[in-house]
Amino acid sequence: MTSKVTEAGSISRRRLLTTASAGAALAVSPFRINLLQAEEAPIKIGFPVPLTGPYGAEAQDQVRAGQLAVAQFNDAGGLNGRKAELVVRDDKLNPGEAATRTLELVEKEKVNFVVGSLSAAVQLAINNVTKERGVIFNSISQSDAINEAADFSKFTFHEALNPHMTSGAVGRYAFAKFGKKVAFLTADYAYGHEMVRGFLEVGKEFNIENLGDIRHPLGTTDFSTLLPRLQALKPDILCISNFGRDQQIALKQATDFGIKKSIQIIAPLLSHASRVAAGPQAFDGVVGGCSFYWGIEDKFASTKAFNDAFRKMYDGKLPTDYGALGYGGVRTVLEAVKAAGSVETDKVVGALEALKYDYYKGPQYYRKCDHQSVQSVLVIKSKSKDMKNESDVFEVLSTEEPNEKNLRSCEALGHKS
Amino acid sequence: MAGLSFDLIALQLFAGLALGAIYVLFAIGLSLIFGMLTVVNFAHGAFYMVGAYVGLYLISIGGNFWICLVAVPILIGLFGLAVERVLIRPLYGRGIDYPLLLTFGLSYVMVECVRIAFGKTGYPFDTPEVLQGAVNIGVGYFPLYRLFVIGATAVVLLALWLFLEKTSFGLIIRAGARDPQIVRVLGVDVSKVWLIVFGIGTAIAGFAGLLAAPLQGVIPEMGGTILAEAFVVTVVGGMGSIGGAVLAGLLVGVVVSMTSLFAPEMAKVSIFALMAIVLIVRPQGFFGRAGLMS
User: CB-based contact (8 Å) between B126 and chain A?
Assistant: First the structure.
């Protein structure tokens, strides 16, 4: 016992000496500057999004608006002078790439938070990494699975709409109006599957008849072999659940095939950037949902303020739906940091859960059990006439107000209530 | 899903042939260059993409689609000539993988340059007004523009066939492909022949890109997806055989179309399954000459 104490004492004496000499060496070396800087290191937000590939147009808007949220935070003085920084990475719309980039962001860049992703499937890959590393991840793209107990963690937040809410809102509008016979053209991955499931669920209330669901791989460039079959089914409604360039090409080619003459095309989500990239003809008359449209600025002061700030930063350009999500995803995290007065994960999680916010589209909050942002869903129609400016592309047909009733229940998702 | 009618199957068959025509147009340039020069041109998709962008640019400065139909192949052909003269020519006589790697790298450079010049976001490309809409072809409605693409492909094929088979220069090209050494001994400047073949191949790629633009819009990555399909067509048809590329292109289109009808999820896989079967039964493809790769 005695000898042990002595031993321990001698080690600690030796260690003390080493530490002291190392400290002395450090005090005079240039290393010291690094240490001092580390104390004031910026708050880093990792931002993995698919900058290249079929969803590139939308991803670039996410980055632009994310930068705006960071700039506003910094201009307002940051966290007691500590500035924030967006660390953008291209996940190439690939789960493996996204996981690697996220790991790199966490390990090498030492990011404090991760916000981003633009794919129902890729966000789960990012979430797997952040969940394991205990880093807050605010997802800004649609997914139902991310709400479910199996994928959820206390670090997981979901600022975007989920397919259940989106298809619910669009279905309730369209099935009441356009008819009961519905055919589906669906991107064959999580996003498409979850959307169709949502449409069929809400369709039960309206007794819709499902004529068939044709699935196509992600990144399809030619739909000419699928369209005759869909046309022959003679539906009242053709529901096209795909996104980005797939949506652009599918709508363009459906228009070429004359499908719109006798069939109403609906889409769970109409992407603003895709509508601009594909032109007015392809999207003309298509009805779908979205989380944000700049045109609601007459209704909400927060939308007006966001639009104006975006215009100012980007030469008069207006923000898009996915841009707004990039803004919302980053801003909520930074506001929570301010409220918590710290970047400590647990404190920020608590602050995010307590947030009742209206930053760009009216009132929102994160539901306690699954951290899903409860928010409004807009039902919109694409127009090709009477456009006041290049961003005047949609007409808002109806708004489904924020309501937990339109979400799947916490119990259904497998959370303990 | 019920409701398989004769009309639907006929329309589906036709859609397959129309899709096949697009494959043929794209693969023909690839096949031509490989057959004559034994250069596997991995930048073919990039030339296709640049063709679409040049069309987009010409229209934005006041041109129209019909002018583009003539101007784009000429401009892309000239670009192809420059690429052959400066980059490919020094590699003749080395292994087949030298030009392959070079063109592979070149395709990345071209895509990145277009991203810098035009941005990463795609652009819409409107179908010319007179070709908009769908027409009744007896078994159902079919987009007029796709019929136009079939016609344009037929014209290109006919012109290429006449040029290769009926002109004396075509004779030299064919002879050069068989045995460049003998042709050289006979006093023909083979390098000039190769230069022109490469130019024609890339001009057709640019033309195909322009024709594809109204079908799917333009985006820097548009050449990537079609390149895989074009290689399948070239391999199935037989590397270097133009007739083989035509037959294989149409066949691949019909296979995709018919699979789409019965099992749409399998459509993308079906063309590779077709390639695997053909390679097992006939490794050189339909009309391929054995030993071209060696």
Answer: yes
